[in-house]
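Let us practice reading a record.
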Amino acid sequence: MVKERMLDGCKCLLLLLVLLYLIFVIIPTGGSVRVFAEVSEPIATRVREEGLEPVNPQGFQQIYGIHRDDLTGVLLYVNGFRFSVEEVLLIQVSSLEQVDEVRSVIENRIARRLQEFGNHLPEQVAFLEDARIVVRGTYIFLAIGPNAEEFITIFLDNL
């Protein structure tokens, strides 16, 4: 009788540990089994509708200082108007080890842009302050601008 209760207790403890593992490890880092083109295409379609312009690989490297060959995929669209901070960025890194480094680069760019715009364009500064970086597995997504939440929803829906 005591052995059966101990066995039941061990089963419950093991189940609890598995659930905790899923909650704290798998879910936050869970990405997508979809390839980059499948995730990026709906985003690219929508941002083009908003008039954002694609940035070529050299422009991406100049802006972020990351060589495109170090990544699985990159999609960067910006507003062509010089005084607009509107931007949509989707990156798929090659490994989870790259996520923190790339996220840090993105956060540093946002901080630099906040300094550049300072108090000159309050609406643009507000967009930068509300910038959202979303990480899911090997995907990193950044949306800055009035449609940021919509773009994030499109990203999450297409993982």
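A brief commentary: The beta strands are 53-54, 71-78, 87-93, 132-136, 139-144.
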